[in-house]
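Students often ask why we bother predicting the structure of a whole assembly rather than each chain alone. The short answer is interfaces. A chain on its own may look different once its partners are present, and contacts between molecules only exist in the joint model. In this exercise we take two input lines together and write out one structure for the complete complex. Read the inputs first and try to guess which parts will touch.
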Amino acid sequence: MLANRRQFLALVAAASATATHSGPIQAQPVPTGARIVILGAGAAGTALANRLTARLPGARITLLDPRRAHLYQPGFTLIAAGLKPASYSVSTTAEWLPRKAEWIQEAAAEIDPEARRVVTTSGRALTYDFLVVATGLKLDYEAIEGMSTDLIGSNGMGSVYAGPDQAAATFAEMSRFVEKGGTALFTRPATEMKCAGAPLKYAFLTDDAARRKGTRDKMKIVYAAHSGAFFSVPIVNEKVRMLFEDRGFDTVKNHVMVAIDPGKRIATFDTPDGRKEIGYDFTNVIPPMRAPDAIRFNSPLSWQEGPFAADGWVEVDKHTLRHLRYPEVFAIGDIAGVPKGKTAASVKWQVPVVEDHLAAQIAGKESTARYDGYTSCPLITRVGRAMLVEFDYKDNLVPSFPGLIAPLEELWVSWLMKEIALKATYNAMLRGRA
Amino acid sequence: MKEMTLSTLLAVFEEMFGTGLFWTLVAAAALVTAAFLFVLLRERRLVGRWLLRAELLAPVGAVAAIFFVLMISNSGFSDLGGPIDVIFMILIGAAGAVGLTILAYVMQALLLGHRQ
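Now the answer. The structure tokens for the assembled complex follow.
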């Protein structure tokens, strides 16, 4: 009997040892002394730095980012729904960065890709062999006349995007509105934006909060779309249209918010028929989004023409994310001037592509890795249900669990993924392990 | 999800529970499984009396597992929206039921000692 027990314990030990040591299957490491500068230590910059330190032993990797706090942005909606505290989205930049990489707590002020040089805000010059632009984007609140982030959390004004504290303040304003009733106004900007599903989610969550409170009949919910559609992917747009109808939302199209009067609670829109005003009792302001000034005005990296030029998005090939004029420059995450992909889910797919192209180039080879525009939006339609919408550049639905989890159904399983599995997956991605 | 490899899954679970807790849970599950196999071999059969008593706890395990998931997820039964939701909930219940049954069987076998 004892022998049996020993055998079993040995078996258990062996099994757990195998499990512990079955680490990620790494592609062939490429030793190098290359100097790689990554602008930004957000989701994209951090995930790439972690993967590169494993893939490129000896590489000198420097990250530039002044932010000490790392923000888990997909959590903002849950904070603004009152389900998580503001601290849910906050960690430190330092805890995710690889020890072997250097972190300079400054932003880039100027980029000269001809000289392969970056100048930091303190005037320090850094040269590079490869540059990866992962700065994220600028929330351009000033572009809305009368708007200031100081106003968030008062006078019926919310803004989920502004940060974790503002997301919590938005929930407080939304809760007050749900008690009293009136008009809730939801909008989205006409620029490229991160997570285009988020504006829709918050309209659904406000509706849900009112229904739970029993005050839905005391209010009007207005969704003002910036274009002729609620969502850029036609098949999803049609589903959203049906859901809006089901929830009894009032909708207007081709309305782009240009000004807001917080005292009078009136938003002004540019429309094909001229300026129009819509009054509100509660609103979730979503500002225009653009490339940070250092990229847009102090570097030649932005698109020179086409739809991404005006707002300064970086001119990269949409499949390789390599700069079209400076082959040693890449862009990943929100800053990349590609048609889709300003989400953490896109970052997860973009990072291995850039890693592989960098490693291949250093090894004198060519990479066939491609990014096809994958992005994912767990579109919350009420607390407890979401649609796991995943799509690509071609507006095709690309479900992770085909035949199992229907992308256009409001499901509890999809909600569980958003609420329980997403942050863990995101963190694993930051460490370069997912 | 780009690739659902074992290492990705392990990384995600380590983040979800914390590395220490996750591997403690895995070790606990492995230990109970090993103990179950051990008593099974020792007795060379499933002992009916222990199994019957253990099975009485199965519904408790099922209900506990389901309520645990609902508790940590801000959701309830009214949120089930499609067949996959029902299937997933049944799987959670089944896992709880089987888990507690095996645990109860093993505890009896180890505490009550050799049948003869």
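Check your guess against this: Chain B has a mean pLDDT of 93.
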